[in-house]
Specification:
mainly beta, 3 domains, 2 helices, nine-stranded mixed beta sheet, single chain, elongated
């Protein structure tokens, strides 16, 4: 009986400490320069080395975000600034490192907001087991690789509702039961390869052409099929078993290739 009572007491104690820990996290506040706003924040920063702003040793050419397979959400906003840095109000929910010219982000909890600030554009974005919302893309070329049951929402920049994100040439690969959604995005030409994956675009996407190659259980369609879409040309090739032309959206010129 004494052993069971001791175990019960320890369980209650751990639960209480856990509640205090996570409850206190909501009161930890600091400035963008990592200066604590109150005494509690100062204590937590000293104890757990929490920082909202991390200086990066160099700009990243490649961004790789690796999740843990849960239904987490990571919001990434890319901003153009002179000095490379990473800013987040949820620093306890992920870790990061720079290897050569690649920025690795490892998400460990269910919700993240991350601002990547640097002068030069990111050339490639890679997602593995991650659910990411990425915005602030304004550049000539971008390559995206989405695999291992990942989900990507590209565009829909809530920081600037009046202006579309812009990519002149987009190269996209999605595979392994992954899905990609394009929203509030301006594209001249997109070359897309889907392998057991899905691509959706909504009526706010302005594109000259989407060239989509399908393999296995893959398809491409509009999320707003009943209204006028702004994709001028949708060119589809490969395994079209799961593709339906009528789901491309109004005013979309669909070309079917072998």
């Amino acid at each position: 009986m004494k052993t069971s009572h001791t175990l019960f007491a320890l369980t209650v104690l751990l639960a209480t400490l856990s509640a205090v820990f996570f409850g206190s996290m909501g009161n930890v506040k600091m400035t963008h320069e990592n200066q604590p706003i109150n005494t509690l924040s100062k204590l937590w920063m000293k104890q757990y080395d929490l920082k909202v702003t991390h200086e990066l040793s160099q700009p990243a050419r490649y961004l790789k975000v690796i999740g843990n397979g849960t239904a987490s959400r990571t919001y990434i906003h890319i901003q153009k600034t002179e000095h490379p840095s990473l800013f987040s109000m949820t620093p306890q929910n992920f870790t990061h490192e720079i290897k050569n010219d690649t920025l690795f982000i490892y998400t460990t909890n269910n919700y993240n907001t991350i601002n990547i600030r640097q002068q030069t554009p990111i050339e490639q974005i890679i997602l593995r087991q991650e659910n990411a919302f990425i915005m602030g893309i304004n550049q000539d070329r971008l390559s995206i690789d989405v695999q291992e049951s990942s989900s990507l929402n590209l565009g829909d920049n809530w920081y600037n509702r009046e202006k579309l994100d812009s990519i002149s040439h987009l190269n996209l690969l999605a595979a392994d039961r992954s899905n990609v959604r394009l929203s509030k995005l301006e594209i001249k030409k997109a070359t897309v390869k889907l392998e057991n994956a899905v691509l959706n675009y909504d009526a706010s996407v302005e594109a000259d052409s989407l060239m989509v190659s399908l393999k296995e259980r893959s398809t491409v369609s509009s999320k707003n099929q009943g209204v006028i879409n702004q994709v001028n040309n949708l060119i589809v090739s490969g395994d079209k078993q799961y593709f339906a032309k009528e789901f491309a959206g109004k005013n979309v010129d669909v070309v079917i290739l072998p």
